[in-house]
Amino acid sequence: MIPVRTIRFFRLLLWRLPSLIFCFLVGLLCVAVIRALLAPKPVPPPLCKETDEDFISESARNVSTRLARALRIRTITRGQSDYDTEPLIEFHSFIKQSFPHVYSSPLVTAETVSNHSFLFTVRGSNPSLLPYMLCAHFDVVPVVEKKWRHPPFDGKIVDGEIWGRGAIDAKQ
């Protein structure tokens, strides 16, 4: 037979067990909150300064200059088959000169389609992955030059901004 004292102890324990569990959980939560509040805040890495040119590669420095040069090429399309071929040929030469690593990479196959379009195929290392496609165009629609703050085909860099037809959507 179990002593009465033991039975009373277990009855009291079972009666108060939910309260004890609740108090334990509240105490645990308090400890976690206090530790989180007292933990030292991580020190963010120092911000790069505009003069920290050692973080900027040579090719990245030339991006704005390269885009400005691309904007000077008047690749205007007036309609479905209404365009000048000379600027398109000039733009092709410009792209090949500006991105020699793309054309020399063993991972990239570069093709010219219909005389004026580029098709670059980049083979991945895992053929089981789904492919993706990037599309772009380098022709622009005609402009009304009087409406421009800076001439649309000068490719000017003014106050850190590049001005020219195609700067936002086409020739990037």
From TrEMBL:
<comment type="function">
    <text>Secreted enzyme that regulates the endogenous N-fatty acyl amino acid (NAAs) tissue and circulating levels by functioning as a bidirectional NAA synthase/hydrolase. It condenses free fatty acids and free amino acids to generate NAAs and bidirectionally catalyzes the reverse hydrolysis reaction. Some of these NAAs stimulate oxidative metabolism via mitochondrial uncoupling, increasing energy expenditure in a UPC1-independent manner. Thereby, this secreted protein may indirectly regulate whole body energy expenditure.</text>
</comment>
<comment type="similarity">
    <text>Belongs to the peptidase M20A family.</text>
</comment>
<dbReference type="InterPro" id="IPR002933">
    <property type="entry name" value="Peptidase_M20"/>
</dbReference>
<dbReference type="GO" id="GO:0006520">
    <property type="term" value="P:amino acid metabolic process"/>
</dbReference>
<keyword id="KW-0645">Protease</keyword>
<keyword id="KW-0378">Hydrolase</keyword>
<comment type="pathway">
    <text>Lipid metabolism; fatty acid metabolism.</text>
</comment>
<dbReference type="InterPro" id="IPR047177">
    <property type="entry name" value="Pept_M20A"/>
</dbReference>
<keyword id="KW-0862">Zinc</keyword>
<dbReference type="GO" id="GO:0043604">
    <property type="term" value="P:amide biosynthetic process"/>
</dbReference>
<dbReference type="GO" id="GO:0006508">
    <property type="term" value="P:proteolysis"/>
</dbReference>
<dbReference type="Pfam" id="PF01546">
    <property type="entry name" value="Peptidase_M20"/>
</dbReference>
<dbReference type="GO" id="GO:0004046">
    <property type="term" value="F:aminoacylase activity"/>
</dbReference>
<dbReference type="GO" id="GO:0004180">
    <property type="term" value="F:carboxypeptidase activity"/>
</dbReference>
<dbReference type="GO" id="GO:0043605">
    <property type="term" value="P:amide catabolic process"/>
</dbReference>
<dbReference type="GO" id="GO:0046872">
    <property type="term" value="F:metal ion binding"/>
</dbReference>
<protein>
    <submittedName>
        <fullName>Putative carboxypeptidase s</fullName>
    </submittedName>
</protein>
<keyword id="KW-0121">Carboxypeptidase</keyword>
<keyword id="KW-0479">Metal-binding</keyword>
